[in-house]
Specification:
Length: 140
C-alpha cells in the first residue's frame, strides 16, 4: 500500500512512478516522521500553554501524529498533525471525533492563536522580550 501526502483526486490515474526504481529508492528519504515533527511542535510552544505532549495512546505513523494540548484557559484539545497541517480532532486528550470538521492550520502558532487568547498574550510577550534583547545586543 502506497502512502500519499496529497489528495489522490489531484493525481492523474497513472503517474508512472510505480515502475521507476530511482523514485522508489528516493521515496523514503523525503518522508517526515510525524512523531519527530510533533515533538518539535510541542517544544516550540510548550512555554505558552499549560500542558502539551505527543499522544502515547493514539497511533503515530510516518504521515500522522496526535498532540494533546491544554491551553492556559484550561481547555483541552487533541490535535492531528499531518502534511496538511494541524487541526483539532477532539475536545479532550487522546480522543478523535470523526464528526468534528475543524479547519487545518499551517502552523501551531496559527492554531493556538485561534484557540487561546492567553497563548496569544504569552507568545506576544515572549516575542517582545526577544526583540528587546536583540535591540540591546545590537546597541552594545
Amino acid at each position: 500500500r502506497m502512502e500519499t501526502d496529497c489528495n489522490p483526486m489531484e493525481l492523474p490515474n497513472h503517474t508512472g512512478f510505480e515502475e521507476d526504481s530511482d523514485y522508489r529508492d528516493f521515496e523514503g528519504t523525503d518522508v517526515k516522521d510525524m512523531r519527530l515533527e510533533a515533538e518539535a511542535v510541542v517544544n516550540d510552544v510548550l512555554f505558552a500553554v499549560s500542558n502539551m505532549f505527543v499522544s502515547k495512546t493514539l497511533p503515530c505513523a510516518e504521515d500522522v501524529a496526535y498532540i494533546n494540548v491544554e491551553t492556559r484557559e484550561r481547555n483541552r484539545y487533541c490535535l492531528e498533525l499531518t502534511e496538511a497541517g494541524l487541526r483539532v480532532v477532539a475536545y479532550d486528550f487522546d480522543q478523535t471525533d470523526d464528526g468534528l470538521q475543524a479547519p487545518y492550520h499551517e502552523t501551531v502558532y496559527s492554531l493556538l492563536d485561534s484557540l487561546s487568547p492567553a497563548y496569544r498574550e504569552v507568545f506576544g510577550n515572549a516575542l517582545l522580550q526577544r526583540l528587546e534583547a536583540l535591540k540591546k545586543e545590537s546597541q552594545s
